[in-house]
Amino acid sequence: MSENRDREIIRIERLTLLVRYISVLLVLIIVSIFVILYLLHQPAAKQQREQVAKAEQTASSLFWIAPDTATITNDSIREWILLGRAIITNTSAYFGATGTVRKQATNGMNCQNCHLDAGTKIFGNNYGSVYSTYPKYRARSGGIENIHKRINDCFERSLNGLALDTASREMRAIVAYITWLGSGVPKGEKANGSGLKDIRLLTRAADPDKGSVVYINKCQQCHQAGGQGQMNLTKTAFIYPPLWGDQSYNIGAGLYRISTFAKFVKYNMPQGVSHTLTQLTDEEAWDVAAFINSQPRPVKDISRDWPYISEKPMDHPFGPYADGFSETQHKYGPYQPIIDKMKNLKKQNTTTL
Ligand code: HEC
Ligand code: HEC
After folding, report:
1. Which of 240, 263, 268, when mutated, tests ligand 2's pocket best, judged by the most ligand atoms within 8 Å of its CB?
2. Are 4 and 74 contained in the same domain?
3. Is the CB of 78 under 6 A from ligand 2?
């Protein structure tokens, strides 16, 4: 009887011991699972925090911010700057069909049509780096250009009009405005987000037929079926600027290069998009650029442009070229073979020197 009880007690003791062991083991396993999960989560959370911080920084301090006119203390300087800004935003009032300074000196467009928000929008072809980088060598003219020359380039090409006298009140005002805009950017440096944002190259040629579909679906409602844009009721300014035809930019303008057009449009059109919120795919941007730049527009004698043909950009649509590719391939791409060839030519030149 007692032997049986003893055995029973031993059995129970062993069982309790086993249960204890198992519970300790279970606790240990659970604890280590938590530790492992915590350790695994740590880097992910840290990475996430870093990403958020980076995005916030990118959104605010990383990009150039145009100065505020309220901070200009000198009255006379402020007047010049404000006049300059008014000419940029409302160029047609000064130089358009009924312009107050000179009538019919331009196609009626405003500088702001292409230099968005008076030349302050990030990647909206803004003027952030103009003052810090001019005067500079430009391959298009093959010489050193100052800000006045660059401004007149846009008057003669993008506005298909007449150059301003360098000493004129209007030119001085525009220069004052652009200088003031870029005054916070160290000389020789480029402000982050200035000018245009780069766009990936296509491996095929840009396709005007595909581009015409993009145009009908995403551009025509504003820029109109004939690309002529739309004027206000009093016909003094464009509500929607023209993209081709008599009142558009001429063949010497920056936008006539398909890469420049694609960069502008991808991050700025349809109206309202920005570099952080685009609508067009890269393909659509290149194709619509090909379509619009295949339509008729004013001609300018640009035979003196790019005096050193080896400095012609890949998408300059007029020969002669140093690389032997056709005008068609230069205009529409594919560009990579052109880029590679030019690189090789340059290498050869430097090794034979
Ligand atoms: C039809 C479009 C268009 C219009 C209108 C236009 N521009 Fe431009 N402008 C451009 C393009 C495109 C560039 C070159 C951008 C590039 O290649 O990065 C440019 C470049 C410039 C630059 C040099 C920018 C830099 O960072 O090097 C200045 C300055 C300038 N324009 C001033 C003006 C002024 C002033 C007006 C009005 C009189 C004007 N532009 C009207 C399209 C236009
Ligand atoms: C909702 C109307 C609207 C739509 C849609 C639209 N745009 Fe624009 N676009 C404008 C306005 C307005 C401007 C002038 C911006 C300014 O002055 O601030 C402009 C300016 C331009 C310019 C520079 C000025 C010029 O006339 O050369 C180009 C190039 C351009 N748009 C191309 C396009 C393309 C390509 C599409 C289609 C993918 C498109 N836009 C869709 C309203 C529109």
Report:
1. 240
2. no
3. no
Most confident of the ranges 60-74, 153-167, 336-350: 153-167
Would you say residue 196 lies in a domain?
no
The reply to whether 92 and 223 lie within a common domain is no
Interval between CA 229 and ligand 2 midpoint (Å)? 9
- Do 84 and 125 fall into the same domain? yes
Q: What average pLDDT does this structure show over 37-44?
A: 80
Residue 133 to residues 63, 150, 194, 255, 312, Cα–Cα distance (Å)? 17, 12, 12, 21, 21
What 142-148 contacts at long range (C-beta under 8 Å, 24+ apart), as own/partner pairs, is 142/306, 142/307, 142/308, 142/311, 147/175, 147/178, 147/179, 148/175
How many separate domains does the chain show? 3
Residue 175: inside a domain, yes or no? yes
Decide if 200 is inside a domain. Answer: no
Residues 219, 267: contact at Cβ < 8 Å? no
CA–CA separation, 81 vs 221, rounded Å?
35
What pLDDT score does 56 carry?
A: 58
| Domain that residue 6 falls in | 1-62
pLDDT tens-digit profile of 195-216?
A: 999 999 999 999 999 999 999 9
Inside any domain, residue 194:
no
Backbone angles phi, psi at 8, to 5 degrees: -60, -45
Of the candidates 9, 31, 62, which is a domain's last residue? 62
Query: Does 213 share its domain with 335?
Result: yes
Where helices occur in the chain by DSSP H, the ranges are 2-59, 75-89, 91-95, 116-119, 130-133, 147-156, 169-181, 208-218, 220-223, 258-268, 282-292, 327-332, 336-352
* Token pair in block for residue 320: 């002669």
262 and 329 share one domain:
yes
Residues 58, 75, single domain; the answer is no
Using a 6 Å cutoff on CB, does residue 185 contact ligand 1? no
Average pLDDT over residues 266-279: 97
pLDDT at res. 69? 94
